[in-house]
Amino acid sequence: MGSEIGNSTNAPVASPASLLSLRGLTRRFGGLTAVDDIDLDLAKGELVSIIGPNGAGKTTLFNLVTGLDRPDGGAVRLDGEPVTHFSPEKLAGHGIARTFQLGRVFGNLSVMENVLIGAHTRLRAVKPATPLIGPLLELGLALLRPAAVRAEEERLREEVRGILARFGERLLPRIDQPAYSLSYANRRRVEIARALALKPRLLLLDEPTAGMNPTETTEMQGLVAELKAEGLTILLIEHKLDMVMRLSDRVVVMDEGKKIAEGAGEDVRNDAKVIEAYLGHGLSQRAADARETAA
Ligand SMILES: Nc1ncnc2c1ncn2[C@@H]1O[C@H](COP(=O)(O)OP(=O)(O)OP(=O)(O)O)[C@@H](O)[C@H]1O
């Protein structure tokens, strides 16, 4: 377990105010423990960043929280409810949304369609109240109630336009263009828009500014700051430490699967173990920046 910097509480059980609570989360790949006994609490409205050298286990941790991978040990709770082995779809239904390090959009779908996918978990008119009845009834309802479905879809399209407006003129003018025709940065924005369309309670952002230039990075930082100001709870993986320092309520440092430090940004930045972990992996901030610029 990592040291707590400027924070003496490290409770063994989930605090009642936690939206997300991880206890002893562990994932092994053969002889490698990619995530090693991680405890983490995220209070509602908090923005916590996870930093650490390449291969530290950050993305694997995200995969465990979002159901893309199954832990070998430990527990995940969302708002006090155990959700450890839930599927990604079920977790999305519970309000967990994420973006991916390398960006994942459907190239042949338009910007609008890509973002609508995020809203799908919230469709009411075509969704039966009991999940047991499943997709067949969903289809039946869609056929029987086209007016309600159309009305709901139009409402969602309006919502999507509102979400896209958050990105200024980056996406709105391209709303009907296929995602494959977009720039890399715009594809990443579409992915974030899709995550927002889910109206998440918890948003996990995996290197949202990877491959972005300084102007684009500043814009993305502004958007994340806005989301935080609106009360969204955010878990952020980011290599750009300046951004991490500006945005985070708390920073967690991972190295070789373990949490090696946790606390306020500046304290963590100056922590001897953290400096050693970065230098030990040959990854100074300058090297990280160079990597991002080159991406
Ligand atoms: N599916 C897998 N099978 C085997 N090993 C894996 C798998 N996924 C991740 N790993 C290994 O687990 C370790 C942690 O990887 P992970 O991608 O979580 O690190 P990271 O901190 O996100 O790194 P980066 O900053 O480079 O994205 C690495 O050594 C990686 O090679």
Describe the 3D structure.
With 295 residues, the chain is of the alpha/beta class. The chain has 2 domains: 1-95 and 200-209 and 223-235, P-loop containing nucleotide triphosphate hydrolases (Rossmann fold, 3-Layer(aba) Sandwich); 108-199, no CATH class. It has 11 helices and 11 strands. It has helices at 58-65, 88-93, 111-119, 134-144, 146-165, 184-197, 214-229, 241-247, 265-269, 272-280, 285-294; strands at 3-5, 18-29, 32-43, 47-51, 73-78, 81-82, 96-98, 202-206, 233-237, 250-255, 258-263. It has a 7-stranded mixed beta sheet with strand order 1-11-10-4-9-8-7, with helices on both faces. Helix 3 packs across helix 5 and helix 3 runs parallel beside helix 6 (184-197). The longest helix is centred in the middle third of the chain and has 20 residues, at 146-165. The chain is globular, with a radius of gyration of 20 Å. Mean pLDDT is 85; it is low at 1-12 and 282-288. It binds adenosine-5'-triphosphate. Adenosine-5'-triphosphate is lined by residues 29, 32, 34, 52, 54-60, 101.
Summary of the model, kept short:
The protein is an alpha/beta fold and 295 residues long.
Give the SSE map.
Elements: E1 3-5, E2 18-29, E3 32-43, E4 47-51, H1 58-65, E5 73-78, E6 81-82, H2 88-93, E7 96-98, H3 111-119, H4 134-144, H5 146-165, H6 184-197, E8 202-206, H7 214-229, E9 233-237, H8 241-247, E10 250-255, E11 258-263, H9 265-269, H10 272-280, H11 285-294
Parallel strand pairs: 1-11, 4-9, 4-10, 7-8, 8-9
Antiparallel strand pairs: 2-3, 2-5, 5-6, 10-11
Helix pairs in contact: 3-5, 3-6, 5-6
